[in-house]
């Protein structure tokens, strides 16, 4: 599953630099996560780094983008091969 940032986001700026895939960026009002780049840190870390650092717990799984571990790993491999 990709993650999403809810409207509880306080724009604290801590999540963006933690994303190893560059999936997080400033949106019009709050930070947003680009689903096609979000691997929930699979391939990089054991846990989603943005979720770990978020002080208001506003980063949740996106019910509209459900992916299993195998799909997330395939996305990670695609992203890293494009950038490598």
From TrEMBL:
The UniProt entry, under PROSITE patterns, shows: 4FE4S_FER_1 (PS00198), 4FE4S_FER_2 (PS51379)
One term under GO cellular component: cytoplasm
* The keyword Manganese belongs to this UniProt entry's keyword annotation: no
Q: Which Gene3D superfamilies does this UniProt record tie to the protein? A: 3.30.70.20
Q: Name the cofactor(s) required for activity, per the record.
A: [4Fe-4S] cluster
List the InterPro entries: 4Fe4S_Fe-S-bd, 4Fe4S_Fe_S_CS, PSI_iron-sulfur_center, YfhL-like
Q: Which keywords has UniProt assigned to this entry?
A: 4Fe-4S, Electron transport, Iron, Iron-sulfur, Metal-binding, Transport
Which molecular function terms from Gene Ontology are attached? 4 iron, 4 sulfur cluster binding; metal ion binding
Domain annotation 4Fe-4S ferredoxin-type: ranges: 1-29, 31-64
* UniProt cross-references to Pfam families, sorted A to Z: Fer4
Q: Which NCBIfam families match?
A: di_4Fe-4S_YfhL (NF033683)
PANTHER family recorded for this chain?
A: PHOTOSYSTEM I IRON-SULFUR CENTER, PHOTOSYSTEM I IRON-SULFUR CENTER-RELATED
Task: Identify this protein by name.
Answer: 4Fe-4S ferredoxin-type domain-containing protein
Native source species? Thiorhodovibrio frisius
């Amino acid at each position: 599953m990709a993650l999403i940032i809810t409207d509880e986001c306080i724009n604290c700026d801590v999540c963006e630099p933690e994303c190893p895939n560059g999936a997080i960026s400033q949106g019009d009002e709050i930070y947003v996560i680009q689903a096609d780049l979000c691997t929930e840190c699979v391939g990089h870390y054991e846990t989603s780094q943005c979720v770990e650092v978020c002080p208001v717990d506003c980063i949740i799984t996106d019910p509209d983008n459900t992916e299993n571990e195998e799909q997330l790993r395939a996305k990670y491999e695609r992203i890293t091969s494009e950038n490598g």
